[in-house]
Amino acid sequence: MAQKAVSCEARQQGVTRISYIMPKVKTNSSAKKRFKVTGTGEITFQKAFKRHILTKKSKKRKRHLGHEGVVHPANLHFVKRLLGLK
């Protein structure tokens, strides 16, 4: 008695054929916490070195560190890719 060849799809129960869908692009979780996109499209970040050991730093230095920094154009393509903007 010859056995009938059964296709792989018929043997797997509950599996339906779906057309291939492109995967979603995930935003880098650490980047979305560190960068912010302004209304004009610039990407800003908080400057480092203003958390602790502030007594030895001048008032002018601490004041300037409090302002947000803007991502340099040389690094812009990399940051945009992490944020899913490109």
Please describe what this structure looks like:
- With 86 residues, the protein is an alpha+beta fold.
- It has a domain at 25-83: Factor Xa Inhibitor, CATH 4.10.410.60.
- Helices cover 34% and strands 12% of the residues.
- A 3-stranded antiparallel sheet has the order 1-2-3.
- A hairpin with a 5-residue loop joins strand 1 (35-37) and strand 2 (43-46).
- It is elongated and about 90 Å long.
Write out key terms for the chains shown.
Factor Xa Inhibitor; three-stranded antiparallel beta sheet; alpha+beta; 3 strands; 86 residues; single chain; 34% helix
Describe the secondary-structure layout:
Blueprint: H1 8-11, H2 29-34, E1 35-37, E2 43-46, H3 59-66, E3 68-70, H4 73-83
Antiparallel strand pairs: 1-2, 2-3
Mean pLDDT: 88
From the helix content, strand content and strand pairing, which structural class follows?
A: alpha+beta
Task: State the distance separating the first and last CA atoms.
Answer: 61 Å
User: Which CATH architecture of the domain at 25-83 is right?
Assistant: Irregular
How many beta-strand segments? 3
Strand arrangement, largest sheet?
A: 1-2-3
Task: Name the overall outline.
Answer: elongated
- Reading the helices and strands in chain order gives HHEEHEH
Give the biggest sheet.
Answer: 3 strands, antiparallel
- Top CATH class of the domain at 25-83: Few Secondary Structures
Helix fraction, binned, reads 25-40%
Percent strand equals: 5-15%
Low-confidence stretches: none
The CATH topology of the domain at 25-83 corresponds to Factor Xa Inhibitor
How many DSSP H or I helices? 4
How big is the Rg?
26 Å
